[in-house]
Structures are given as structure tokens and as C-alpha cells.
Amino acid sequence: MTQVTDQDPMDFDIWMNMAKDDPRQFESMRMEAIDEVIESAPAERQMQLRRLQWRIDMARERAASPMAATIAISKMMWDAFYNLKDHYEELYAKDSTPRRTHAPLESAQVIAFRPQLVEA
């Protein structure tokens, strides 16, 4: 079993091996690392961070696969980014009229790429 050392507690290879070899220990370490980060934040921000982490955990739990969880969490990040962008534009717009320049895409066309055979 792989152990996290005091020298480099966020070593990718150690965490990757732990996820493969001992998923329960990995999850325990992951939650502990997240709690440490949240507790290191200013007290007035900790509740907001815990709520965000809850939303992330729920997205992971509801997802059908790790990739689906990654996509859902990425979408959350982009939604927050565009929300921040909208607020920025509202604050600095010359006419102070709220503008929305980005609308989430409801669907997209998927283009299939055919692999090319490489002759050796």
C-alpha cells in the first residue's frame, strides 16, 4: 500500500497509486486534504467553500462515470466564470445596462474523426 509522505503530500503518482490500490484510503485522504484547504481559508469564506464542495461532491455522486463527473464539474466552473464575466460587464458597462453576451449551448454537432492508418 502506498503512503503519502510529509515531503510531498500532493505527489500525483502517490495519489494515483492510492486511488488504484486502496480507494477507501484515497477517498479519506481526499476529504482530509479538502478540509485542510477549506479550514485554511478566512473564516468568513469557509461556509461558501463547504457549500461549493457539497455541490461538487453531489455532481460526482450523481454522475454515471468519472468522465461524466468531470464534465459536470467543468460545466459548473464555466457557468461560474460566465456569471462573473456578466457581473464584471454590468459593473463596467458605459450605459450600466446588464448585457448577456454568452448563452449556454443546448446542443452541439459531434464530428467523427476517422483514424488514419500509418504505414511503417
Rg is 21 Å
Structural class: mainly alpha
Which stretches of 5+ consecutive residues score pLDDT under 50?
A: 1-5
Order of helices and strands: HHHH
- Helix fraction, binned, reads 55-70%
Mean pLDDT across the residues is: 84
Quickly count the helices.
4
β content, as a range?
A: under 5%
**First-to-last CA distance:** 42 Å
Q: How are the SSEs placed, and which strands pair?
A:
Elements: H1 12-21, H2 23-40, H3 43-62, H4 66-92
What's this, in brief?
This protein is mainly α.
Would you mind describing this structure in some detail?
With 120 residues, this protein is mainly alpha-helical. Helices cover 62% and strands 0% of the residues. The protein has helices at residues 12-21, 23-40, 43-62, 66-92. Helix 3 (43-62) crosses helix 4. Residues 1-5 have low confidence and may be disordered.
How would you describe this structure in keywords?
single chain, 120 residues, mainly alpha, flat
